[in-house]
Amino acid sequence: MTDKVLLVCSSTPANVGRAIERFPNDAVFQHYDLDLLCTAGHLPELEKWTQVRQRLVFPKRHEYAAAIRLWSQVVRERYAVVAVLWCMEPGNRLAKAFALLCLGRRVLVFNENADCAFLSLPFLWSFSKARIQSGAFHNRLWVRAMVSPLKHG
User: Fold this and answer.
1) Radius of gyration (Cα) for the chain, nearest Å?
2) Which of 18, 39, 70, 139 could disulfide-pair with 114, CB 3.0 to 4.6 Å?
3) 66 CB contacts (<8 Å, ≥6 apart)?
4) Are 46 and 16 contacting, i.e. CB atoms less than 8 angstroms apart?
5) How confident is the model over 5-20, as pLDDT tens digits?
6) CA-CA distance, 151 to 112, in Å (whole number)?
């Protein structure tokens, strides 16, 4: 039996391709059907990939009814893994948040180097700490005030 994997394309198609090549050595990824969730702008480039079962497209902003239909379709699919790219690129915040709402059994997170891990509290802690120490949040005053002890700890 094949498991279903949803890859939320919240980065460039090149990063999405690198992420697919770096799927972890996990039982789910031995035999799986891959679905992509992407923007309409990335669809032409992603349509060239033949290993994809289904391509879903994010609705345009403020199309709330379409977003709810998409979400319910994704939830009905019951994905074993929902993979998402949390790269340092600006934008795509809604796509990254949407991945967390897809109710997959597990969430696989990729960074900008195509390193990945399944989402857990220890992973989220180390991921956030690394982002803070790298200076990714320096332009936000409230974040600096709350996390300055982490930089020196």
Assistant:
1) 16
2) 18
3) 59, 60
4) yes
5) 999 988 888 888 888 8
6) 21
DSSP secondary-structure letter at 58? Answer: P
| Nearest-angstrom CA–CA distance, 110 and 143 | 23
What is the mean pLDDT of the segment spanning 49-70?
89
Distance CA 34, CA 54 (A): 7
Range 145-151 average pLDDT:
55
CA dihedral 69, 55, 8, 19 (to 10 degrees): 170
Contact 75, 95 (CB under 8 A): no
How far apart, in whole angstroms, are the C-alpha atoms of residue 40 and residue 46?
10
What is each CA distance from 45 to 9, 10, 110, 141, in whole angstroms?
Answer: 12, 14, 20, 38
3-state secondary structure of 57: strand
* Percent of the chain scoring above 70 in pLDDT: 83
pTM above 0.85, yes or no: no
Please classify residue 121 by burial: count the beta carbons closer than 10 Å to its beta carbon, then call 0-12 exposed, 13-18 middle and 19+ buried: exposed
How far is 50 from 16, CA to CA, in rounded Å?
Answer: 14
What is the mean pLDDT of the segment spanning 110-114?
83
